[in-house]
Design a protein that fits this description.
Number of helices: 9
Keywords: Membrane, Transmembrane, Transmembrane helix
Number of strands: 0
Shape: globular
Largest sheet: none
Distance between the termini: 39 Å
Length: about 220
């Protein structure tokens, strides 16, 4: 299976996983919920569109996708750990900031590595975009599956309290907290990708530019 086809399969699976939330909490589709779910589908379509124009044999793609998979795997592991460990849950705010820094670092590393290898600004930015796309494609299904798996567990209440879910729910005006949480996951399914692409555009461009300022190595040096 080619990388493009793999992304298509993952995208379809993630839309199905997101939509599955409406089967357990039908109220999630009320209000803006349907639009939030459509946003998830559009985010997955964007992932497919972003990987389509480029040759998947390129070292640039391998660098970006590889770093993205590692970053997404680490972020996903943290999500699971929040349900399993009260210690991790209690540190969720601090960990959240560490994750943001980690996403920036992933974009910078991918961009700088590709730019240095290919001596190309475009290669660096492309690698940063791929890093954020594959981080997202790895992270999002883990978030959904973790919630579905622990949905009726006392750990979910602990996670909600640590992350301020109850406060957000009270301000939302909704009456069904589980429907609210599903809508929140749908919103995250769009926002997370867009935030990652902004990170790739800003920090990826900066990181891709710096290696180009270095002198080219002498032939045979």
């Amino acid at each position: 299976m080619t990388l493009r086809r793999l992304v298509v399969v993952i995208a379809v699976v993630e839309v199905v996983l997101a939509a599955a939330g409406s089967l357990t909490d039908r109220a999630a589709l009320r209000g803006s919920g349907a639009f939030a779910l459509i946003g998830v589908a559009l985010a997955q379509a964007l992932c497919v569109l972003l990987v389509t124009p480029f040759s998947t044999r390129s070292a640039t793609i391998r660098i970006g996708a590889g770093i993205g998979l590692v970053a997404g795997g680490m972020y996903g592991a943290e999500v699971v750990a929040e349900y399993l460990s009260p210690t991790v849950t209690d540190a969720s705010v601090v960990i959240g900031w560490i994750i943001v820094i980690g996403l920036v670092a992933a974009a910078v590393l991918a961009s700088a590595a590709a730019s240095l290898r290919e001596r190309s600004l475009r290669a660096g930015i492309t690698a940063a975009v791929y890093a954020m796309v594959f981080e997202y494609l790895t992270w999002y299904p883990v978030v959904l599956l973790s919630y579905y798996a622990f949905r009726t567990s006392p750990a979910t209440d602990r996670v909600w309290r640590a992350e301020g879910t109850y406060d957000d729910f009270a301000r939302s005006g909704m009456t069904d907290i589980r429907a609210f949480v599903i809508q929140d996951f749908w919103g995250a399914g769009t926002f997370h990708l867009l935030a990652g692409l902004v990170i790739a555009a800003v920090f990826g461009t900066i990181a891709a530019t710096l290696p180009l300022l270095l002198p080219k190595p002498a032939p045979g040096g």
